[in-house]
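Figure 2 data, in text form.
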Amino acid sequence: MATPVVTKTAWKLQEIVAHASNVSSLVLGKASGRLLATGGDDCRVNLWSINKPNCIMSLTGHTSPVESVRLNTPEELIVAGSQSGSIRVWDLEAAKKVVHSLKSQMLVVHKWSQWKEEALPHSCPLQGPEPSVLSPVLRTLMGHKANICSLDFHPYGEFVASGSQDTNIKLWDIRRKGCVFRYRGHSQAVRCLRFSPDGKWLASAADDHTVKLWDLTAGKMMSEFPGHTGPVNVVEFHPNEYLLASGSSDRTIRFWDLEKFQVVSCIEGEPGPVRSVLFNPDGCCLYSGCQDSLRVYGWEPERCFDVVLVNWGKVADLAICNDQLIGVAFSQSSVSSYVVDLTRVTRTGTVAPDPMQDSRPPAQQPPHPSAPLRRIYERPSATGSEPQRVKQNSESERRSPSSEDDRDERESRAEIQNAEDYNEIFQPKNSISRTPPRRSEPFPAPPEDDMATAKEAAKPSPATDVQFPVPKLEVLSRPPVVTSTPAPKAESPIIPATRNEPIGLKASDFLPAVKIPQQAELVDEDAMSQIRKGHDTMCVVLTSRHKNLDTVRAVWTTGDIKTSVDSAVAINDLSVVVDLLNIVNQKASLWKLDLCTTILPQIEKLLQSKYESYVQTGCTSLKLILQRFLPLITDILAAPPTVGVDISREERLHKCRVCYKQLRSISGLVKSKSGLSGRHGSAFRELHLLMASLD
């Protein structure tokens, strides 16, 4: 009898290069679980089909990095918010019309270019624009004054909610392109927004540690849930009952009763900040995407049903389709997708004894209770039967689209990269067919050779700065896209803080150039010599660094922070300075004015380093100095001279002059780097604003 093939519970689908620069946001289509939208620092929104290598469509129009993206429930509209506060909505249904004429239009452009080269001399410029391949499908919403941190589509009406770093929540009417209502109440950035399943409420989570519930009909806050002790990153409504879940950076998940407006239970002990949660479609459990694992929770009472180890790092979004949970994560310009087979996951009852046991049979699910514990949502019978009633601003407060917005819409483009994948994902909305609609098939699970291989594949990735090479997966990239959108400025090469391979180390260096079977012993010797190359030098470097850190630590134990910093600077090794600053930055009370005079020259060196970790540490230290000491320095320098001799004041004045001179020197460097894109550009722009008083 043939041996049955044992499959995995969780596996990696693929890894793609999603953007030319860093990925800043992404979202999965919840209806199909197959559509992925990514926003990048290159100001683009790209659409992908899960487990397909090519980009389906690229949407342009934003002029600053895309911070948040969201798809509506039927996956026909997509909204994207940028770092500048602008919001753009694309109609994917309208873009379908372009697919049928794509080939003919591309032929027109090809013949146009060919005729221009053959018929016109090079000295005769051609007047007028070239034929456009695709027309824009975009709506622009303006009104926020800072980054767009969160977005959500109304489940029935044509409304979009947006949350920003300016602490405001706005409700937009897509048809009229105007702000319907503004909700105020949070004191810090709004990180997540979710409409209730019946479309009557809106839940918001913010960095001020609170969750708020808003009534759309009355236009006011219904209740505030202040239980968290850290920024709240995500909220999610139960699909049926009046229940809300919230996840926070305090490593807890709280469940809130929306009838009694009180906490139901609290799950503590998460391995890290909670960034992504999702209820099962039938509401039997909650999935939490943790660091390198998926956890399955119940709430009455609070308990963990199962833990599945998945090597996905920090998962950014989750979706469920065909009894499979799809998770996506991003790092720099790459996006990875993972699948968890939910038929092999315990969703009710007791926790599984061994989360590493990937070869267990499918879990037997006990029947659900016939009646819910709470009131259930009353959904409208038809999507377009009755328009959603919401509280609206007066006509004078609504913002009508300006000519500048119309110009932006005309300049925006929807560029289809792969028509075949596009047709497969975006099916016609109003098609007539005598056969049942095509249903997407589950992703096939790869076979598992043995239990040891399963455990090895499920091990979480180490959180170290340098890792030994691992077998590389095939990275799928998309072809370059030609557009009229200006390209971002080129950045100087920076070595990332997190990378899969040590810098300058190649697997080919460990192998001989030519394999000679007759000289097996010689081949082994050659391989060992390649492995030992540079080993002694690295040992000397690490030994020297360890000795230097011991010297600084000996001074640190005496309690003299200034002397320990002076000793680290005297060693003339930036790595030691970075290690010391990473400790000092954690406690702002350790900073003194005389410490700034020593640290500022080192910060200038760190900001010019090619190592990302050095630049990050330098930016953090400089931000602390500017926030704590720049007002003091400017006040002391602007104060009139005193009569008589004051030794302490003269010393303080001298330190302020030294710091001011050094800050002026650093100000030019910060200004030159504030034009960069991505995380570094944002940090330098923030520092440039803090240093505005120096100009």
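Caption note: The chain has a mean pLDDT of 75.
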